[in-house]
What we know:
- The chain contains six helices and five strands, in the order H-H-E-H-E-E-H-E-E-H-H.
- It is α+β, with helices and mostly antiparallel strands.
- The chain has two domains: about 1-35 and about 180-205, no CATH class; about 35-175, Alpha-Beta Plaits.
- Helix 1 packs across helix 2 and helix 3 crosses helix 4 (about 130-155).
- The longest helix is centred in the middle third of the chain and has 25 residues, at about 130-155.
Amino acid sequence: MTAWDIFAIAIQRWVVTVFCVILTASAAFWAMKSPPVYLVQDRVVLLPPAAADPNGLTEASRSVVDLAGVVARAIEGSGGQSQPVSDGVTLTGEGIRSGYSIRQPNSGGQWKFSFDQPVLDVQAVDATPAKARAQMQLALDEITKTLTSLEDAQGTSAENRARMSLNPATPQISEQDGSRPRAIAASIFTGAIVTLALLSGLGRKKPSFRLPDRPTARRSRRTAALAGTGRR
């Protein structure tokens, strides 16, 4: 099908064409006017019990690293966000505009995971700074609740429980606008593809008029009558 064929179909199916153009323009306008979201990021560091390491700044033991992984997996299994390939991926980069995620940073690569830090990377996103901070607080509360539940299940005494510390102490918040030109271009491209596919599927309209039937039946009857007369 040539470009001229598509153009001819678009003219014939002008109602469909206009409808698709309006939808595409609306999507592009929404992408242009899409409000920003706010991303809050912080890291929760798990520290050994004060009795085992009063300093808390020495090299973390393997048990605390593993504990961070257990906490992250427990939260993920209860409905948290999945682990991305790269730790540099943010919630807004994944297209999420409201919610939070809790992940243990992966210091390995795409094909080989390596978790060697007693750290939980926490992100929260929402439509306003206040809502984003509230999402962050929900995430921190979830970490505390999960850690307490795990240690309660093991019967860990108070003096032998792991400690938590935020790094930095105050969560960092930033406004995320995204890439509006890219979103507008994607909306227009998607609208064009859908319009072309729809027009190609509909095809050209069939003519609404019919040529008059040739009077073959009448001629046949007349010929038969003449033949009968001739026999007489």
